[in-house]
Automatic annotation (TrEMBL), chains A, B:
Keyword Lyase carried by entry: yes
Similarity remark: Belongs to the DSD1 family.
A GO biological process held by the record: D-serine catabolic process
GO molecular function terms attached to this record: D-serine ammonia-lyase activity
SMART domains: D-ser_dehydrat
Identification of the protein by name: D-serine deaminase, pyridoxal phosphate-dependent
Residues covered by the D-serine dehydratase-like domain: 256-364
Matches recorded under CDD domains: PLPDE_III_DSD_D-TA_like_1
Domain of life assignment: Bacteria
InterPro entries the UniProt entry points to: Ala_racemase_N (IPR001608), D-amino_acid_metab_enzyme (IPR051466), D-ser_dehydrat-like_dom (IPR026956), D-ser_dehydrat-like_sf (IPR042208), PLP-binding_barrel (IPR029066)
Swiss-Prot/TrEMBL keywords: Lyase
Gene3D superfamilies, per the entry: Alanine racemase, D-serine dehydratase-like domain
Length: 378, 378
């Protein structure tokens, strides 16, 4: 069903398709120039038309954050899938089902215990699995350090029996906390170097390590070279958001996702406009809180998408948002933004805001909205 | 499909049905004792079996936060519905559809502009609507102060033409920031008094005001008397959560919702356990951050639900959570909580955590899990 945006129900997650397409081209073009494959992370969009656009632009396979995403991608013809979360042993039967149906599914581990569990299951089932080892390049989450003595032990468990050691993978998640281009380029190099070093240790020990996978949107857009890397994973680049804007890897006019809302009331004495986008629409993500600029629950724009400087969603209840614009009186706000005025709010974190909606309203270049459904749950 | 909890996929939103039932009985019993009706807010559960249990226990109608909730309740036989968010003029056709199908739907406004828009639409459509006026009792969000000169003007617009003035409604949302029983009882009285005062002003002016609706879980459980009040609205009491625990209106053993997760890795050097419940499962709600006790992203319990003192979900990425237990070494944590260990995490805010899941796993007294689906979107 095609709807003119002015008639969309509020709140709505509005996706600007021309911006989405430019963002996809930008990242793909950069990866092509750096000579690496791009394996987009579908956890941001969880939406087939977005993933299809990424693949059409040249992406090689996808990265997923849940086996539910893997299943849906596979059912829609994508068979090169990397599940980039350490494998829980009791999820192996789900993975087995996908592999037996022909999915080229990569599993991930960062421990001897994890590798042994996959190996045991593979033997019991008589089924081969591709297994990746997670490398910790910046101490922010999971993975083995490139120099960890356990790395070789884990790799040996994988390289024998029915498993194949597909490669090493890392993610410089700490890049979200940076904003200086120099520091970002350094972290991208640190990410590359940690992963390449791990791969070289394995190869020096006579172990195979065909692939070297790195990535986060900020490091992917900041890396100067990616020697030794075979593929890059990134997710939020397709939509971008205020966190990425603060990191400095996108311009305001590249932000493709926003929440369409409308004014449902005023508290002129307090300088508040009340809108129908609360945290249920925006999510509770306050990712810009500790960045160079805190955008509250989001930056307010006109319905047409023009950024209104200083106007923010300052507070959020479940279905109520409080919009403020410092320096403008409550009475003036009430007259400039009367009941029913439509606004668009740019989110802090596109992955979290998208998840609040069963579908995006994808707005084409000619201004029509089409619902693009997205996956919910695991 | 019935599943033993030990075989549930993780992450899962686990609902302890005996606790849920006791919570429902507790609030209903209290409202019966205070001589008022209870109109539960379904925005917490968005789940029919929960709502059915509330109605079976004696609730009179429901409160909704979206017209989507109203529609679903009505399609399942609930016809007394109060939409407790100020009416956006362009949502009136949706309300009209429900009213024409026989739903006794209450609409809300707090402005002359809002009342006029509803009145105009009612005249154009030749359709009566029940309209409530929102009163602001604590300055935390929307509504007119009881003494606001606009109150009578708004009421007069409603009382003429095709609309009926159904009553006045308030919500002491600031109660979430309290934790002292005395202060809570005082706020409950402030909430009651503001709403009753508004009703009396209307009646003194010769306007009808049959109903007086107040409520929030903390004030409902703290009010000493509710003279002049006809109904109470409350939502989170059905599940309770860590925010309510900090407010002091529930015990740990009353928390009915938790997230079942499992250990997927360790970083022994940092004292971290990595689990498969990140913010996608818990939500980004950090409601306890500024309360008397900050629980991070949640309090960790054993699979059986026993609170492990000091163990918290300290940090969350999309599908990764970092669990810590200060004072216990990383090596000991890795040996006490090996890969695959199942844990349950009590959420800060049940409304936000529930929304991350397409269904609850409702665990009955005999320990079986059944999926109870919940509504997503608007």
């Amino acid at each position: 069903m095609i709807t003119p945006p002015a008639r969309l129900q509020t709140p709505a997650a509005v996706l600007d398709v021309p911006r989405l397409e430019r963002n996809i081209q930008r990242m793909q073009g950069r990866m092509n120039a750096l000579g690496v494959r791009l394996r987009p992370h579908v956890k941001t969009s969880k939406c087939l038309p977005v993933i299809a656009a990424q693949i059409a632009a040249g992406a090689t396979g996808v990265t997923v954050s849940t086996l539910g995403e893997a299943q849906r991608c596979f059912e829609h013809g994508i068979d090169d899938i990397l599940y980039a979360v350490a494998m829980a042993p009791d999820k192996l039967p789900q993975a087995l089902d996908l592999v037996r149906r022909g999915c080229q599914l990569g599993l991930l581990t960062d421990s001897l215990q994890g590798a042994q569990a996959i190996s045991r299951f593979a033997s019991e089932q008589g089924q081969a699995f591709d297994v990746w080892i997670e490398i910790d390049c910046d101490g922010h989450r999971a993975g083995l350090r490139a120099e960890d003595p356990a790395l070789l032990a884990v790799a040996r468990v994988i390289a024998q029996g029915r498993l194949s050691l597909a490669g090493v993978l890392t993610h410089a998640g700490s890049s979200y906390a940076l904003s200086d281009p120099q520091a970002l380029a350094q972290l991208a190099e640190q990410e590359r170097l940690a992963c390449v070093t791990a791969a070289e240790r394995l190869r020096a020990a006579g172990l195979p390590c065909p692939d070297v996978s790195v990535g986060s949107t900020p490091t992917a857009l900041s890396a100067r070279e990616l020697d030794g890397v075979t593929e890059v994973r990134a997710g939020v680049y397709a939509f971008f958001d205020l966190v990425m804007h603060n990191v400095g890897v996108c311009q305001a006019e590249e932000l493709a996702l926003s929440v369409l809302t409308q004014v449902i009331g005023h508290q002129p004495d307090k300088g508040w406009i009340i809108v129908d986008a609360g945290w249920m629409a925006m999510s509770r993500d306050r990712g810009t809180q500790h960045q160079q600029r805190d955008f509250g629950y989001g930056q307010v724009c006109t319905q047409a998408g023009h950024w209104i400087e200083g106007m923010q969603l300052s507070a959020a209840n479940q279905e109520h948002g409080i919009v403020t614009l410092p320096g403008v009186s409550g009475a003036e706000l009430a007259s400039r933004f009367p009941l029913g005025t439509r606004l668009r709010i740019l989110p802090n974190h596109a992955c979290a805001t998208g998840a609040q909606f069963p579908h995006y309203q994808a707005i084409s270049a000619c201004g029509e909205a089409r619902p693009w459904s997205r996956w919910h749950g695991w």
